[in-house]
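#random but structural
TW: two for the price of one
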Amino acid sequence: MRRAKSKPILDDIRAYLEREQSQVLPKSPEGQAIAYTLSNWKALVRYCEDGDLEIDNNGAERSLRGIAVGRKNWMFFGSNNGGWHTAQAQFSAVIHLPVGSPPSVCIAAERTASRTIMGSNGGLAGLGPKQARNFWQCLGVTQFEIPLDSRICAWINALPSSFRVSPNRLYNSLPYYEATMAHIQAICEKAEVLPCEFDAAVFASADSDEWPEEDEVF
């Protein structure tokens, strides 16, 4: 079937490339593309001679996807376990802050810890700004950098204030997320409460008897 259907088409393509090769400059993009294709022609048409061979190399490409995706992480962290090693280092940095450190110092340390483990920065795959803060919050080591979710957005947007939070921008923009976080921290400072206390209060007031199964996260 391959010899009957595919080979005639491939022969026509080769004949066309050989005709065009003499009409273009060897160093031009077209000339280089034609030369590259013809130099690999034997491998290109090999599948016509053996029915057990795949027509494309998509399977091989998929098998290498894990390596390609991890390559960026390993560039910074050294191995596929590097993200966890970095998380451990950031955990240590936050919990060993001197007792009584000013809020600005705590915020800077917690924000650095969150940024470092975000997947887009080569940290833990799948962690965005919200998930990174949720990670530290679950470990009980942060007080100022809180995960901003749909509950907090709804609570803030219901207030008689000009301050509004856009869920879509929280998801799409780290600078916007951090600017919103800074605004909430300033509000909490004036109210003399910690952002983690504010987060707990909003969570409790928005919660029902059963935990919502669908919650927009960032």
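TW: number two ↓
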Amino acid sequence: MKLTDVKGDQVINCKTLGENIRICRMLDEQGFKMISNGSYKSDRRWRDHKGLTCYDINSGKFGTVNFYLDCGYTVINSTKITGEPSQIETLVAETLPVTAAQVNTQHAETLPVTAAQVNTQHAETLPVTAAQVNTQHAETLPAAPDPVNHPTHYGGQDDPYEVIKVINAWGLGFELGNTVKYIARAGKKDPSKRLEDLKKAAWYLAHEIAKY
């Protein structure tokens, strides 16, 4: 997957410092900018959230995994993004000892073929089971609600006023974005926690007001 394939409702999660450096370097090389028009390479926000750090490269914003999941985003592991490894990762890889698994892989051609491998190679000659038929036709069954990607308590993907769309359209930051999020889902995600969601919204709004 390339950086240019990342959609507006997707964010990239960097779980390690090495991955953060690699992704930020690629973003700079391909002309992506932070919302402040700053360079990703000079960004040090990963140190605040460590492995929870996510980048919304289409808007130039950043946040945590939990924040973006709550807002209906799809979180993509940075290792799925293709590109050259960072210099740090290359240097580290060169200093690591060769493992037994790597030795076995390098010399796999000298090992005897197992019965399991033979069965796999000739699987096409085996009769199709009922379970396989059900899997092949699973697309005809109605999809279960997805609690991660465009959950219904935030409006759902087909709703033009889905929370994440409103937050992006209005250019809201972390505090105001959370304020809108908790107001929108109050009584929908969990009816018994309607008051709790509204209190959370009030907390984030007060936090934003306190900046001024």
